[in-house]
Structure formats: C-alpha cells, structure tokens
Amino acid sequence: MNCNFVVFRTMPIIRFVREGRDVKCQFGENLREVALREGLELYGFKGKLGNCGGYGQCITCYVSVAEGQQDSLSPITDIEQTKLRGRPGNWRLACQAVVKTSAIVLTKPQSPPANVESLMDEALSKDLPK
Ligand code: FES
In terms of CB atoms within 10 Å, which end of the chain has fewer, N or C? Predict the structure, then answer.
C-alpha cells in the first residue's frame, strides 16, 4: 500500500520587535540565520567586531523571547545553560535556537531601545499565526 501524505504547515513568523519586522521562516530554521538572512542587526558592538559564527561561544547573539513564547523555539541547549547563567530566563542565544512556531523576539536585549515597552505592547497586540 502506498500512502502519500502531504502536510501543509503554516510558515512560522518571527516578529522582530526592535526592527518592526515580521519575517517568514521555515520550521526548523536557525534563528541567527533568519536574522542575518533578513539583514537585521543581531550583534551589538562586541559582536560586530568579532563573533563565533554561530557556534555558541562568543555570547554576542542574545535575543529575548516574549513571555510565554519560549516553547516557540527549540529547548535551551547545554551551551546556553552555561553561557546564559545569570541572564533573564527568556533570553536565548540566537545561534542555538531553532524556530518551531511563530514568536516575538527582541534582538540585543542587553541594550533595549528606550521605548521597548511600547514596542513590545504593539508587537503583542497583533496576532501571529501559530
Ligand atoms: S554567534 Fe557566538 S554565541 Fe551565538
């Protein structure tokens, strides 16, 4: 018996709060790669000078994920457990995070824009596909 199943899955959207951009991506795409593909500035000054290229070693690709949306990304890795010690619980290393479903993300949470709360409120007020 030949069973052919076609599964249609809605493409996840990453809502980049700082940049005001909704970016479609593939299920399973690396979050760092999504940001770089779209030309978004993932890195602060230190990361621009030099980063590890996505190997989880330089801790310059911080992002924070909106409260309650941590499950939109792959589980936190062992590298992140170590490298993010002492950081807020919703922070990730973009290079270690894989997109599962749509999420709202703030790049460079270590230096948030002055209006971060209003930007986040606006981002949360609009629907995201699952
Ligand atoms: S790019 Fe170096 S830790 Fe993510």
Answer: N
Q: What CATH number should be reported for the domain holding residue 98?
A: 3.10.20.30
Between residues 130 and 88, the one the model is more confident about: 88
Q: Is 106 in the pocket of ligand 1 (CB under 6 A)?
A: no
Q: How confident is the model at residue 125 (pLDDT cuts 50, 70, 90)?
A: very high
Token representation of residue 33: 């790669």
130 assigned to some structural domain? no
When divided into structural domains, the chain yields a total of 1
Domain range for 42: 13-112
Strand pairing class (103-107; 62-65): antiparallel
Residue 38: which residues within 8 A CB-CB, separation 6 or more?
16, 21, 23
Q: How many residues does the chain have?
A: 130
How many whole angstroms from 130 Cα to the centroid of ligand 1? 27
Would the CB of 59 count as within 6 Å of ligand 1? Answer: yes
80 within some domain = yes
Residue whose CB lies within 8 A of the most ligand 1 atoms, among 33, 76, 93, for a mutation test: 93
